[in-house]
Recover the amino acids of this structure.
């Protein structure tokens, strides 16, 4: 089965904790702090592998974690950095945040390698906190937390031309005649299950890639049948070849079919309606009507709308050369840039402290005392060395920028009142 979607959990490595230790050597009775820094956690990196064409490997394993950094050591020894985890994907893979659906990375074009989750930085050892007033710091900084995320991987086939049409109109036969692809060909009334890629070789090395998008049905844009599974593969194409059964071998009206398919394309992604489209009126070798030429009827309907119509027979090869050279001309006239989806969300900009809760309440047990607590406060205190001047300045700035001081004032705090945070007490002064 062609695997073009997978949902996986990724987690970068936690930063190693800083170390608390003191120099203890013979003839050095009062050695200073020598605790080393922790190592950086490993990154989660996505990398394009030209040898892959499906996401099948990610169907069998859903959890991927980079290595954490090691803790710092004695004698100013730096902890070892965690090993990065490199995840190989085929070109054209889109990485999205599974919850919001926003694009994190598009592994296409020049983007062959991207760090999606950065590892946590290592914590500083106590050797960094020695000051003139604090010569024996018994505190080291914890390593930064790991980042974790559920992501949706989607493979959007990279092709210059998308082949669309109702099932059983001859798309697979067309592809096998004009390219090196070898799709399964039979009288299927439903749909080809996998998108087939083929390369058209023209004189002068001016070939192009065609993707046979599996046969669409009405309601595909709403997910009926396997609509969404297949429609995503034409989002990168620049030109559409619309194959239609001009002979109406199954009693379908080719003009009506073209309108219906185009409505599905437009409903799925409005950009599809703006792409140049060429109509391949197929199966002309089995047209027996003497009254009306169905190809001329198709031309009269769609060429005034800017869609060139070619009379072809995928079985005999009639009209194929003219069609392919016309498509090459269309491609030459279009911008050369590949369709690459812009990044909409960077998980590395997310600060895990941002959404952590906290409470500001007046104590019921102690008079003129206010209690501030919650995961946000607890984590901040874990990172902050309140014994140093810089650390205390950071603490005061944190209270101000997060709005905690405003909330204390709204709760009625007065100068001289006490603020309690997890065993720490401070007098409040403006």
């Amino acid at each position: 089965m062609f695997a073009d979607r997978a949902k996986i959990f990724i987690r970068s490595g936690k930063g190693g904790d800083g170390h608390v230790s003191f120099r203890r050597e013979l003839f050095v009775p009062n050695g200073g702090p020598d605790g080393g820094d922790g190592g950086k956690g490993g990154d989660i990196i996505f990398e394009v592998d030209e040898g892959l064409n499906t996401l099948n490997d990610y169907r069998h394993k859903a959890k991927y974690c980079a290595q954490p950094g090691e803790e710092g050591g004695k004698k100013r020894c730096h902890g070892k950095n965690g090993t990065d985890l490199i995840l190989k994907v085929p070109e054209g893979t889109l990485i999205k945040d599974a919850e919001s659906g926003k694009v994190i990375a598009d592994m296409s074009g020049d983007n062959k390698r991207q760090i999606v989750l950065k590892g946590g930085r290592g914590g500083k050892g106590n050797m960094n906190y020695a000051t003139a007033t604090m010569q024996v710091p018994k505190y080291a900084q914890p390593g930064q937390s790991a980042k974790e995320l559920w992501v949706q991987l989607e493979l959007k086939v990279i092709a210059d031309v998308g082949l669309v049409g109702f099932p059983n109109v001859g798309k697979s036969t067309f592809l096998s005649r004009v390219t090196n692809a070898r799709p399964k060909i039979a009288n299927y009334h439903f749909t080809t299950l996998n998108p087939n890629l083929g390369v058209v070789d023209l004189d002068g090395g001016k070939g192009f890639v065609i993707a046979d998008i599996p046969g669409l049905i009405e309601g595909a844009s709403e997910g009926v049948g396997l609509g969404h599974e297949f429609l995503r593969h034409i989002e990168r194409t620049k030109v559409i070849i619309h194959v239609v059964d001009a002979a109406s071998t199954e009693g379908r009206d080719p003009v009506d079919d073209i309108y219906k398919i185009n409505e599905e394309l437009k409903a799925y992604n409005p950009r599809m309606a703006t792409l140049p489209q060429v109509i391949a009126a197929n199966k002309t070798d089995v047209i027996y009507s003497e009254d009306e030429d169905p190809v001329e009827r198709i031309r009269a309907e769609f060429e005034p709308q800017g869609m060139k119509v070619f009379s072809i027979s995928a079985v005999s090869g009639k009209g194929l050369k003219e069609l392919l050279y016309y498509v090459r001309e269309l491609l030459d006239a279009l911008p050369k840039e590949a369709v690459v989806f812009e990044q909409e969300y960077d998980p590395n900009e997310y600060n895990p402290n941002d959404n952590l809760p906290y409470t500001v309440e007046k104590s019921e047990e102690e008079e003129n005392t206010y209690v501030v607590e919650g995961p946000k406060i607890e984590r901040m205190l874990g990172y902050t060395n309140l014994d140093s001047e810089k650390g205390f300045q950071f603490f005061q700035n944190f209270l101000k920028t997060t709005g905690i001081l405003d909330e204390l004032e709204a709760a009625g705090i007065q100068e001289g009142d006490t603020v309690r945070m997890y065993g720490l007490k401070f007098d409040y002064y403006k």
Q: What stands out?
A: Confidence is low (pLDDT under 50) at residues 183-192. The first helix runs from residue 57 to 60. Residues 161-333 form a domain with the Rossmann fold fold (CATH 3.40.50.300). The radius of gyration is 32 Å.
